[in-house]
Amino acid sequence: MSVQNQSQRVTAPQIRLRKGGEPIVVLTSYHTHTTRIIDPFVDCILVGDSLGMVMHGMETTLPVTLEMMILQGRAVMRGSSHALVVVDMPFGSYEESPQQAFRNAARILKETRCGAIKLEGGERMAETIRFLTERGVPVMAHVGLTPQSIMALGSFKAQGREETDWAPIERDAKLVAEAGAFAVVLEAIAEPLAAKISASIPIPTIGIGASPACDGQVLVLEDMLGLSDRVPKFVKRFGSLGDQIREAVQGYADAVRDRSFPAAEHTYGMKKK
Ligand SMILES: Nc1nc(=O)c2c([nH]1)NC[C@@H]1CN(c3ccc(C(=O)N[C@@H](CCC(=O)O)C(=O)O)cc3)CN21
Ligand SMILES: CC(C)C(=O)C(=O)O
Ligand SMILES: [Mg+2]
User: Fold this and answer.
1) Which CATH class is domain 12-240?
2) If you placed Cys at 195, which of 88, 109, 181, 213 could pair as Cys (CB 3.0 to 4.6 Å)?
3) Which is the catalytic residue, given 187, 191, 222, 265?
4) If you measure from the C-alpha of residue 172 to the centroid of ligand 1, how many angstroms do you get, rounded to a whole number?
5) The complex's ipTM?
6) pTM for this one?
7) By the 8 A CB rule, do 189 and 215 touch?
8) Listed residue (179, 170, 167, 161) closest to 200, CA to CA
9) Which residues line ligand 1 (CB under 6 A)?
């Protein structure tokens, strides 16, 4: 038996090797049950800090804590056996210093047993990304629109829509690759910029609102399932779970009210003597 590959799980180095190849399929998931359903179909599952907005109705991702990420990371690991699981580092858990980032990344890896972490920021996080990767923590980077900077940005808006805004974003992508990130999320950036970055860096780019020029794509699961009521422009709804839930709950409420549920097959009689 191979000691190297006791599980069939996708690894961060395998994702890294897919630069320029077959597109990398990524979805977010926060729960065991949704994870069980999506795991066979995707290469990578992201436990995103978007869970604060999606599960808890928060207005931004800023209040999300390390404890919340670890709890949902464990739930996702229990539901998956194939995909690489990447857990977002929440706002405030890594920006102070490489040491703070390592301490909290190590907690995430130890307590969830996930395969990698993700953090937001380019040039300003390059030193931290190098510190983590040199110490055995695979890092997925995230540049372009970085939602944890919402208070500085003012709103969730697309980046790099004027050519004069391109240079810092290009530099961010180049520096995270040089620092050792195995992949980088490009969020909400104009297509020509996403194409230029994807063609010029050696690691896979995973786009969300960043055009088909990327090496892979990611969406928030609830958004693509049609379960979120407000979604960004870049979301395509591949399902209509919200409508299906409404219909099912309407049927349940009607059945309870007209006493057609529970029927005989859902009801216990007495044990036969
Ligand atoms: N459910 C969900 N889906 C996401 O994709 C997502 C989250 N939550 N939370 C964290 C971030 C925030 N994201 C967002 C949220 C909104 C827009 C959005 O609506 N942008 C507008 C433009 C708004 C403006 O220009 O001020 C758009 O038209 O896309 C974009 C990205 C992406 N991420
Ligand atoms: C949208 C993805 C990239 C993310 O960071 C999240 O779900 O938190
Ligand atoms: Mg996130």
Assistant:
1) alpha beta
2) 213
3) 187
4) 21
5) 0.95
6) 0.96
7) no
8) 170
9) 50, 53-54, 61, 147, 155-157, 188, 220, 223, 228, 232-233
